[in-house]
């Protein structure tokens, strides 16, 4: 297949590829030209192994990434929020031979035993003769990202060009494409939800409004004034946007708030419904190159709380004790499809465990209703087993979030001599008058006794990763 960016630059050279908050724009033709130029300079310092990129969202990062595709080198994306020790370990695990980084991380690079170059220094260097790929081998590795590593050592997920292509096409078949679509991207490009939007932009010929990070004021302004039509969010950023919207309304051109990153609390969905904000729930992960299940717009209100049905080229089923689960029976979500990873780089044992009979075992828990709609319940590793009963943290969090004054809630298990484990809750409130006693009474009214938290702790904030997903394993008393 012809190189995607080259093809897009030929088809729609003057169409805006990326729009920045400082009003700077770059067309697809300019993006392709600058990426090829950067590739001829990058080639001078890198000839073997993989390249890691360490940068926040920026035009430079997008150019550097596409440059790597032109010299056919897989890119390992490093999470900017990790420590130097973690970067070093990930570079070892993913065969990184060169690191390119944004200037702000210069001081951190000195302790890493891998040749490192700032993006600015490469851009200012001299070009060399090098082969610029005119074609893309769909089966070759395009990118690698590490799983969040909530338990054990994070694993490098291999994502092929075919994975990314399949994900983008399947998403378009589900959400549709409008001539005026503009996708606001504030998720980190080093996470799949962010990177997948870059592919959609080039494959669709769609403009992307790029922000360095989530900022509710900037996002709100972009939706209201910059003709943004789609945005990807997680529950906590969605909640902040709804608070910012207050009694207002988004423009009619805004057609989709794609909500992923874990089970969505029902109070949040109901709040969005009241405000006529078009929430479309989705389910996906690094291993599926972004979404693999999405709720169609026509079912969004009828199936409130569901992540939808598998995308056109994907398959999904629920397994319980090694067999296919019945309707409404909770079990492990397993998936198939061309957007699913080949596996983890250099992790044969992990691959054997994750891939069984051509199905990828996600480690997530959910169920399918009678119509085949997926409802995601929780991460299997977050499951609390109390007195032999399964307790799902997301269910308790949803009840806590329904109490007026509670902004955030997180639940995890605590070891208990009598019950094995018991749930413990951590909350962030907007009202300092909210008490633990009130919250416990509220939980007792809405939950079975074994699901009621044994303790409630108040926090100023809850631990979240770069995409604002709650990290329950970091919750502590």
From TrEMBL:
Q: Which UniProt keywords apply?
A: Ligase
User: What general EC class does the enzyme of this chain belong to?
Assistant: ligase
Q: Does the keyword Ligase apply?
A: yes
Q: What is its EC number?
A: 6.2.1.26
Name of the protein described by the UniProt record: O-succinylbenzoate--CoA ligase
Question: Which organism encodes this protein?
Answer: Gracilibacillus pellucidus
């Amino acid at each position: 297949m012809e190189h995607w960016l080259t093809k897009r630059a030929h088809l729609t050279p003057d169409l805006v590829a990326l729009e920045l908050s400082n009003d700077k724009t770059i067309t697809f033709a300019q993006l392709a030209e600058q990426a090829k130029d950067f590739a001829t300079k990058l080639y001078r310092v890198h000839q073997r192994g993989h390249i890691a990129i360490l940068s926040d969202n920026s035009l430079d990062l997008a150019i550097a990434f596409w440059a790597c595709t032109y010299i056919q080198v897989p890119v390992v994306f490093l999470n900017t929020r990790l420590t130097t020790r973690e970067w070093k370990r990930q570079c070892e695990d993913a065969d990184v031979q060169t690191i390119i980084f944004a200037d702000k991380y210069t001081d951190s690079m000195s302790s890493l035993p891998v040749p490192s170059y700032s993006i600015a220094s490469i851009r200012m260097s001299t070009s060399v003769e090098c082969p610029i790929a005119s074609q893309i081998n769909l089966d070759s590795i395009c990118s690698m990202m590490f799983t969040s590593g909530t338990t054990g050592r994070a694993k490098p997920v291999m994502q092929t060009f075919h994975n990314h292509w399949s994900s983008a096409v399947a998403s378009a078949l589900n959400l549709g494409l409008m001539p005026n679509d503009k996708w606001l991207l504030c998720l980190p490009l080093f996470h799949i939800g962010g990177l997948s939007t870059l592919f959609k932009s080039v494959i669709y010929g769609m403009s992307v409004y790029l922000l360095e990070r989530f900022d509710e004021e900037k996002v709100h302004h972009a939706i209201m004034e910059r003709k943004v039509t789609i945005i990807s969010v997680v529950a906590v950023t969605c909640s902040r946007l709804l608070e910012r919207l207050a009694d207002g309304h988004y423009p009619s051109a805004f057609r989709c708030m794609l909500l992923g990153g874990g089970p969505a609390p029902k109070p949040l969905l109901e709040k969005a419904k009241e405000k006529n904000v078009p929430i479309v729930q989705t389910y996906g992960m690094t291993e599926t190159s972004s979404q693999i299940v999405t709720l169609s717009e026509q079912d969004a209100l009828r199936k409130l709380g569901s992540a939808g049905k598998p995308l056109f080229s994907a398959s999904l089923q629920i397994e319980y004790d090694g067999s296919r689960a019945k309707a409404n029976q909770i079990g492990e979500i397993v998936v198939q499809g061309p957007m699913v990873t080949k596996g983890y780089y250099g992790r044969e044992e992990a691959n054997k465990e994750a891939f069984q009979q051509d199905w990828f075992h996600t480690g997530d828990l959910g169920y399918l209703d009678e119509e085949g709609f997926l409802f995601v319940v929780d991460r299997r590793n977050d499951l609390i087993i109390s007195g032999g009963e399964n307790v799902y943290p997301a269910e308790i969090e949803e009840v806590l979030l329904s109490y007026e004054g509670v902004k955030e809630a997180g639940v995890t298990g605590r070891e208990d001599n009598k019950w094995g484990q018991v749930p413990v809750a951590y909350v962030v409130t907007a009202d300092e008058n909210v008490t633990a006693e009130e919250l416990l009474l509220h939980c007792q009214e809405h939950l079975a006794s074994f699901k009621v938290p044994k303790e409630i702790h108040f926090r100023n904030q809850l631990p979240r990763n770069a995409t604002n997903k709650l990290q329950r394993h970091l919750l502590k008393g």
